[in-house]
Design goal:
alpha+beta; binds copper (II) ion; 263 residues; five-stranded mixed beta sheet
């Protein structure tokens, strides 16, 4: 049997290594500038995940290097290792620790998602149409105002984007807003976003959708509500019939929730 492990020392080394890795990783601005109410929440979530991952990595490295150093074969030792089998304490530990970490990460992510998708008063609904390889948008109101390649958003108001994929799966992503959502043919998906900084951003398709995928972008302008209304009022095109049809059809074919006759 191997001797007693210096558990206190290994734990101290793990905590120290976690601190060093975190100190290097945390100051890096991984997500860039944030421009929605969800951005700080998601950035904090990423920071917590970085610390957790650093801990797991540090723990594995400390145990690995301890084993390499402590149990190295002496020169000339050609014998087999001891036929050891099973170690209940170790097995309980390596089951419990990851379980606790994963449950915590899942619970915390759930809480963040719940918070950033909390419906606000007076949201605006905008239809986003995705097709190879362009974005277009429908605005609320009886005129069915329609814009191609350019999306305008009133500042500080919650937006419910209804996604309509006209051909294959696409994905809606404005990096500064953090939220990413797939547009799937046949169903309507929703992204809930509250932009909180005016400016011009890029909407990027982030699901490989064919040859022109890399060029599938649109300009996003977040502006004061008065300017937004003026811009929408100045739109000359209406949502074309096939797109209107997809709004109607998608809604009709949306899968019913379990228990309501759905799958
Ligand atoms: Cu794409």
């Amino acid at each position: 049997m191997m001797g007693r492990l210096p558990i206190a020392k290994m734990l101290a080394a793990t905590v120290a290594l976690t601190a060093v890795i975190s100190a290097v990783m945390l100051p890096i601005n991984w997500n860039g500038q944030g421009a929605s109410t969800a951005a700080p929440e998601i950035d904090r979530l990423l920071d917590v995940m970085i610390v957790l991952s650093s801990f797991v990595f540090a723990l594995v490295m400390v145990m690995l290097f301890y084993a390499l150093w402590k149990f190295k074969a002496k020169p000339g030792d050609e014998s087999d290792g001891e036929p050891i089998h099973g170690n209940t304490r170790l097995e309980v530990a390596w089951t419990l620790i990851p379980t606790v970490i994963v449950l915590f990460a899942g619970g915390y992510s759930w809480a963040v998602l719940d918070e950033i998708e909390e419906p606000a008063q007076n949201p605006i609904t905008i239809d986003a149409f995705a097709q190879q390889f362009a974005w277009s948008f429908g605005y609320p109101g009886k005129d069915n105002a329609f814009s191609e390649g350019e999306l305008h958003i009133p500042l500080g108001r919650q937006v419910h984007f209804k996604m309509h994929a006209m051909d294959v799966i696409h994905s809606f992503w404005v990096p500064e807003w953090r939220i990413k959502k797939d547009a799937v043919p046949g169903i309507t998906t929703t992204a809930i976003i509250t932009p909180d900084k005016p400016g011009t951003y890029q909407l990027i398709c982030t699901e490989l959708c064919g040859f022109g995928h890399a060029a599938m972008r649109a300009e996003v302008v977040v502006e004061p509500p008065a300017e937004f209304r003026k811009w929408v009022a100045g739109l000359e095109r209406e949502i074309p019939p096939p797109y209107l049809e997809s709004i109607r059809q998608d809604t009709e074919t949306n899968p019913l929730p379990v228990g309501a006759g759905g799958a």
